[in-house]
Amino acid sequence: MIQRTLFRASRQAARPFSRPHAAVAPVRSVLPCTRAGLRWYSEQPAPKEGEAAAEASKPTETEKPSEETKLKEQLEKKDKEIVDLKDKYLRSVADFRNLQDRTKREVQSAKDFALQRFARDLVESVDNLDRALTTVAADALTPSDTNKDLLTLHDGLKMTESILMSTLKKHGLERFDPSVEGEKFNPNVHEAVFQTPQPDKEDGSVFYTQQKGFLLNGRVLRAAKVGVVKNS
Predict the structure, then answer these.
(1) Biased composition, Basic and acidic residues: where in the chain (predicted)?
(2) Hey, what CATH topology would domain 116-229 get?
(3) What is the dihedral of CA 211, 216, 218, 221, to 10 degrees?
(4) Is this prediction's pTM over 0.90?
(5) Which of 20-34, 54-68, 103-117 has the lowest mean pLDDT?
(6) Under the phi-then-psi rule, with left for phi > 0, alpha for psi from -120 to 50, and beta for the rest, what region is 194?
(7) Mean per-residue pLDDT, 159-165
(8) What is the pLDDT at residue 198?
(9) How far apart are CA 156 and CA 136, in angstroms?
(10) Distance between CA 38 and CA 33 in Å, rounded?
């Protein structure tokens, strides 16, 4: 007991003269552990080269289209709408113009042939007037004291016929006589009543008119009844 007490006293007396102990530095790991050093492994198989390129080209969910891309898409959409509307507008204008032209032709046709029924009834009166003029023989029209009244009547009927035919022509109604001009037979405007040989005339030509024909604005109102030459 006494020895232990003396030993402690001697140690305390010698401590001020002893060398201070150096501070112990904390022990650090020789191999630093960082996140770069960690390696994670996936259970899925590695993608092929084409699939890897496609995956790389796909935008991630976090990526959003920029404002410029949105504006370009909207501009392209508006351009397509403008082209579509322009095409519809041009088609509508063309259809309207075609409708105008068709309506104009129909109205003009209705005007041209509005008098067709009246003209059919009128040509009978013109035929009677023509027959009255042709019944008088040519030798009876020589001026003399005995046929003075006949000449006056004939001249009056001739003048009436001339004025009537001029008025009808203004409204599109015209009379034609194929035998006067020696026309070729045309089944569209002529009606063959008989055929006979005529050595001095061309085969198929009209040499006699039994009933004169009429045209209404260029359309056949009544075909002319004629005799046709047939030499063969």
Answers:
(1) 58-73
(2) Nucleotide Exchange Factor Grpe; Chain A, domain 2 (2.30.22)
(3) -50
(4) no
(5) 20-34
(6) beta
(7) 92
(8) 87
(9) 13
(10) 8
